[in-house]
Amino acid sequence: MGACCSREPYGNGVDVEDAVADREQEDGEEGDAIIGDYGARVRLYGASKYTSMYTQQGRKVTNQDAMTVWEEFTGDKDMLFCGVFDGHGPYGHKVARHVRDTLPSRLSSAIKASQNNSFKRRDNEGKGDNSDEVSKNQGDEDSGDYDDSSSLLLSSWETSFIKSFKEMDEELSLDASIDSFCSGTTAVSVIKEGNNLIIANLGDSRAILCSRGPKNQLVPVQLTVDLKPNISSEAERIKNSNGRVLALDQEPEVFRVWMPDEDCPGLAMARAFGDFCLKDYGLISTPEVSYRRLTDKDEFVVLATDGVWDVLTNYEVVKIVAYARKRSMAAKLVVKYAVRAWKIKYPGCKVDDCAVICLFLKNRTLLARSFSELTQVSVNHSELEACSDVSLAKLENYSEVSRASLNHSEIAAVPRKFRSKKRGEISENAKIYLNSDENDCPPARLDKVNSTGKFPRLRNVLSRRKSTKDHEAVEAW
């Protein structure tokens, strides 16, 4: 017996999960894997033992979302990389796919180099006392969630991620085959190594974790902050670089980044790969990196582009994945519910592209048992029957976690800059912006699909850029 979110009728009275299951065989339950760097198995679609992937094009010419899973990342059988990328602008699909294909290789090389340096350091230092090094890394009082070992781990991973993202952006700026002057992509990625989860976020895609509370209830844990231009620290950096952060009259709740003297491009995120027209004006490609130590209460991670988060809450996504009959269906179910929610909630809007990766942290037997126990504790039969006739948006009424009361225990991996100076607390900025997307709805007249604003003068900028294919023109930006 599934939860209400997986028994919602779809289309002409057809159950969403049944419809997905009927088509699953032709999609292929396990995506074809190719061999990547250090022998990693690379997947761009489908499912494997611990992952489920799916993407669907919205009402646009090209799907600008991309995703990838690297199993046995860096050649380590216990390491896995997942990444989701949301392109925007005229050539956003090319940027997203190029980053998807290139970034993991750069990251794996950086990690291997870091590991080799660490081994050399240990050989030189022997087994001496390293308390000074631990103390040095623990100097920032904002890192109160980390113990000694994880602080060292985060420092090493953070360096590798930042280095790789910087190199990736520099490569894009030099690649004459991809016009990324007014096009770019977000990137949200995780690396799982044993019980360690490292999260890197660039832009407004999102990663969440499904964990279990004291009564075995589902608890969504948001792992990333949506890096929008209206976050105070992001806006300050942009304004200090002479960029502008403004919202248009017709969409007052959507803040965008603009050039100093041009009404373009109106980017709806504060960090991204590409978009070199804004790189001198506060847009950066430096990711926010955070760490979480996984426990036996943690069930799965979901990474998705904003086409999902604009219409589904964290809890709704957790419910959909948790009660999917088959793991391989989970990502596709999330996308199908998101598409349906777009059509129901905002019939006047274009449906955005959606991409989802589900990373399961336990084998199927343990996961099924834990959710069987969960349903006995937190969901009764009458609730499930009653839920079959309500809209997907009302699923939040069954949540045992109030989305309006997210606190530091539910957002464990918030980057340091969003933490309060008092240990164990989250800053007000983090609370506001972690919750904002849960409550804000795009107005019916707003085309949410566009990550850049629409102005006539933008065409002039693009035409100038298009007519100037000279490689040096890219470097100048």
TrEMBL record:
GO biological process: one example: regulation of intracellular signal transduction
PANTHER family named in the record:
PROTEIN PHOSPHATASE
CDD domains to which the protein is assigned, alphabetical:
PP2Cc
State one molecular function term (GO): protein serine/threonine phosphatase activity
Q: How is this protein named in the record?
A: PPM-type phosphatase domain-containing protein
Alphabetized Gene3D superfamilies for the sequence: PPM-type phosphatase domain
- Please list where the region (Disordered) is annotated: 113-150
Record lineage: Eukaryota, Viridiplantae, Streptophyta, Embryophyta, Tracheophyta
Which residue windows does the record flag with biased composition (Basic and acidic residues)? 120-139
| Annotated source species | Populus trichocarpa (Western balsam poplar)
Q: Where is the PPM-type phosphatase domain?
A: 50-361
